[in-house]
Design goal:
2 helices; 19% helix; six-stranded mixed beta sheet; single chain; alpha+beta; globular; 108 residues; 44% strand; Hypothetical Protein Aq_1857, Chain: A; 9 strands
């Protein structure tokens, strides 16, 4: 399962509303090869469920992830950080053995 912090929930709902996404919009999370640690996170809004998607809902936020990516993301929490060192969505991934300084890529 992939979970969402309260802070991430609020920021996601604000973005969905402020960017005029259609009703039924959800967060799509994925993993691609690349980045300075070997794998990089993908995060986007979507409204179309694809064949093979794993669907989760936490705190009223629906999340879709493809089967391949899910293997790397089991147990991950999507959080939102705002501070002097940067601001945005962050992944608290218990499967990552190393991460890059910016938090956008990881290795297992």
């Amino acid at each position: 399962m992939i979970t969402v912090s309260e802070n991430a929930k609020q920021h996601a709902l604000d973005l969905i509303k402020n960017e005029n996404h259609p009703e039924g919009t959800f967060i799509r999370v994925g993993v691609d090869g690349g980045g300075c640690s070997g794998l990089s996170y993908k995060l986007e809004f979507d409204s179309i469920v694809k064949d093979g998607d794993q669907i989760f809902e936490d705190k009223g936020i629906k999340i879709a992830v493809d089967k391949k990516s899910f293997l790397y993301l089991i147990g991950t929490e999507l959080d939102y950080a705002g501070g002097l060192n940067g601001k945005g969505f962050v992944f608290n991934n218990p499967n990552a053995s190393r991460t890059c300084g910016c938090g956008e890529s990881f290795g297992v």
